[in-house]
Amino acid sequence: MRRAPKVIALTATRNEDWVLGLSLRVSLSYCDAVVITDHCSGDRSGQIIRDVQAEFPERRISVRRSEDEEWREMDVRQKCWTAAAGSGALTSSSWMPTRSPPETYSPTCGPSLSRPHAADMCRCR
Questions:
Q1: Which residue, among 26, 67, 24, has the nearest Cα to 48 in the 3D structure?
Q2: Which of 4, 18, 76, 84 has the fewest CB atoms inside 10 Å of its own CB, making it the most exposed?
Q3: Full residue range of the structural domain in which residue 55 is found
């Protein structure tokens, strides 16, 4: 029997508490797991992540905190990918959409939020 593909969201955030809760809840509405890299947030991001983890105990939410003051987007995205690969959540049929919290999309959210782009979706092989 063939296993269903897993969808694992990769999220990098820095001081985005204004939208992080919505972003994680939307991601968890269609993703099996979320891997978060919290890049030196000084706002309520940590508490929001803990609150969402409590709301979705059946979903895997992995958090990695980066203390590097300089934002190097490709390094942060690579760290998300590496954390997902090391989490044991990936299978050969996994899909990993990459998002920053302001890019949250759900068909019910309307045009005010960004739509996902095909280039932002990686399929593991």
A1: 24
A2: 4
A3: 8-123
